Amino acid sequence: SDLERGEVVARAAGIAPAAVRSTVGAGDAFTAALVVALLEGDEPAAALGVACRVGSAAVEHLAAQPPFDRLDRYRSHA
C-alpha cells in the first residue's frame, strides 16, 4: 500500500488557529487520534483532519489530559 511505502496519501485542509495554553501532549493526542481514526476505517485525508483538530484542541488546555469528547465530535467538523 502507499502507507507501507511511505508515500504521501493525504493532505489536511487548514484548521482554525488555536488559543495555545500548553503544547504538552499535543503530539501524542494527534498521533493517537490519527491511529484510532485509521483503525476505525476513516479515509487517510479524513483521519488526518480529525488528528489535526484533536491536536489543536489539546493545546488549548493546561494539562496533558484535556477533557476530550469521543472522536466523533472531531469528525463532525470535517
UniProtKB/TrEMBL annotation:
Domain of life according to the entry: Bacteria
Keywords of this entry: Kinase, Transferase
GO molecular function, one term: kinase activity
SUPFAM superfamilies: Ribokinase-like
Keyword set includes ATP-binding: no
Domain named Carbohydrate kinase PfkB: residues: 12-67
Alphabetized Gene3D superfamilies for the sequence: 3.40.1190.20
One Pfam match: PfkB
Protein name: Carbohydrate kinase PfkB domain-containing protein
Species of origin: Agromyces binzhouensis
